[in-house]
């Protein structure tokens, strides 16, 4: 994508390689400043993005940059503004929440990573303008969540080496965690889950890492997924860097990896949130932007319509309710998104205020619905993790009720809420 500015480049020492790479990509205008003058420069322009072309010399100047950026977000457009910053080591940049880049990263890779981040900014602008337009027409719309995207992010860890336990703890303390001890398990998780970042730990041979990166690079869904390789594979990522914008390698331990990785995970999770919100706006608010399932009012309207249609045509209809003992909101959102991926096109579902999930199987009798619901419950059981890690995986209790000739929507719901668990 063409880089339409302005852009701010921060460095006490001139960085012609970075500036020329940005210009070659169409970036204009480019405002260069040193670290001391950067806060004033940032307040005088409204940059699309900021690139720190050298590591920040000290924390006070990094904090001054962060303060200027926060003030800019308040008085400016409010759209997401990516900040890429070189770091001296494998850790995070001194600039809070900046997307850390290696001190020796080639300029063309910086431009590729910046382009990926700017797509999130463009998406954010699109969503906010759509919300403004629809709100001015008096339409009632769901709000874009204001919580930290990390609160609903999920990271996949693939590995089986000695650092795997420590890596799992370090990542799991910050975000949702899916573990995979094999490439096959990792591939299954990528296909069924909403993944916001992937860590390839130690314990895999270089050819296995290469095979996994090949799969990611060849699938357009993962082109901007944050992927970080831990361990001693110094030359393994270079052939894939052009296709995976947010691919990195780190030789330090789990804590350093998490510090460097989390800003990218937050950015990806924010982008996924925006995509769900855009789908909700396209559907005039009928789709819940948190889950991708139907919103509450749309679900009950469609259920009434489906019950009437089933009675008129004499076809089956079955409703299932999935409950999670001890589950919290995060687990419920995770489960709802999984259900949305696993359901058939003709079915529909919603997440209720008590964190349970209703799924309606149209033109389906009890026996067939039991098979479908049990398959979904097994996937949920084998995929979700309990909020308390000591409990391990969590069970999904499933109840089903099929439409009878004497049923109304109320009686059907009363039976599915009260029935004995089906599996």
Rg over C-alpha atoms, rounded to the nearest angstrom: 24 Å
Euclidean distance between termini CA atoms: 50 Å
The profile of the biggest β sheet is: 5 strands, parallel
Quick one: how many beta strands?
A: 14
The proportion of strand residues reads: 15-25%
Structural class: alpha/beta
In short:
This protein is α/β, with parallel strands linked by helices.
Explain how this protein is built:
The chain is α/β, with parallel strands linked by helices and 423 residues long. The chain has helices at residues 16-24, 38-44, 59-75, 107-136, 164-172, 183-192, 206-218, 254-282, 296-313, 329-342, 366-383, 409-418; strands spanning 7-10, 30-33, 49-52, 83-87, 99-102, 154-158, 176-180, 197-200, 227-230, 247-250, 317-323, 348-351, 357-362, 397-402. The radius of gyration is 24 Å and the shape is globular.
């Amino acid at each position: 994508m063409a880089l339409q500015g302005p852009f701010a480049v921060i460095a006490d020492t001139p960085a012609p390689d970075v500036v020329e790479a940005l210009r070659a990509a169409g970036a204009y205008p480019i405002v260069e400043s040193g670290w001391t003058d950067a806060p004033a420069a940032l307040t005088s322009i409204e940059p699309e993005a900021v690139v720190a072309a050298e590591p920040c010399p000290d924390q006070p100047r990094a904090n001054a940059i962060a303060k200027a950026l926060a003030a800019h977000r308040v008085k400016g457009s409010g759209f997401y503004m990516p900040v890429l910053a070189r770091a001296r080591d494998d850790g995070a940049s001194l600039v809070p929440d900046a997307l850390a880049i290696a001190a020796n990263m080639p300029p063309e890779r910086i431009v590729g990573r910046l382009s990926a981040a700017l797509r999130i900014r463009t998406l954010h602008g699109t969503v906010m303008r759509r919300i403004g337009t629809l709100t001015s027409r008096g339409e009632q719309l769901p709000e874009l969540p204001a919580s930290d995207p990390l609160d609903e992010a999920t990271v996949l860890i693939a590995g089986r080496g000695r650092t795997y336990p420590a890596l799992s703890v370090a990542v799991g303390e910050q975000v949702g965690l899916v573990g995979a001890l094999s490439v096959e398990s990792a591939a299954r998780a990528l296909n069924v889950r909403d993944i916001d970042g992937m860590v390839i730990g130690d314990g895999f041979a270089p050819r296995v890492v290469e095979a996994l990166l090949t799969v990611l690079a060849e699938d357009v869904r993962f082109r901007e997924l944050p992927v970080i390789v831990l361990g001693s594979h110094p030359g393994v990522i270079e052939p894939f860097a052009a296709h995976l914008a947010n691919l990195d390698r780190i030789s330090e331990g789990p804590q350093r990896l998490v510090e460097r990785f989390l800003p990218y995970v937050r950015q990806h999770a924010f982008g996924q949130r925006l995509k769900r919100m855009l789908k909700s706006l396209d559907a005039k608010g009928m789709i819940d932007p948190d889950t991708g399932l139907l919103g509450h009012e749309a679900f009950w309207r469609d259920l009434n319509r489906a019950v009437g249609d089933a009675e008129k045509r004499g076809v089956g209809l079955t409703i299932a309710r999935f409950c999670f003992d001890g589950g919290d909101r995060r687990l419920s959102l995770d489960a709802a998104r999984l259900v949305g991926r696993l359901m058939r096109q003709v079915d529909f579902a919603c997440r209720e205020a008590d964190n349970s999930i209703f799924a309606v199987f149209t033109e389906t009798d009890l026996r067939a619905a039991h098979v479908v619901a049990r398959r979904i419950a097994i996937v949920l059981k084998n995929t979700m993790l309990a909020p308390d890690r000591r409990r391990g995986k969590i069970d999904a209790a499933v109840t089903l009720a099929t439409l009878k000739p004497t049923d109304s929507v109320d009686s059907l719901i009363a039976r599915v809420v009260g029935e004995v668990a089906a599996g």
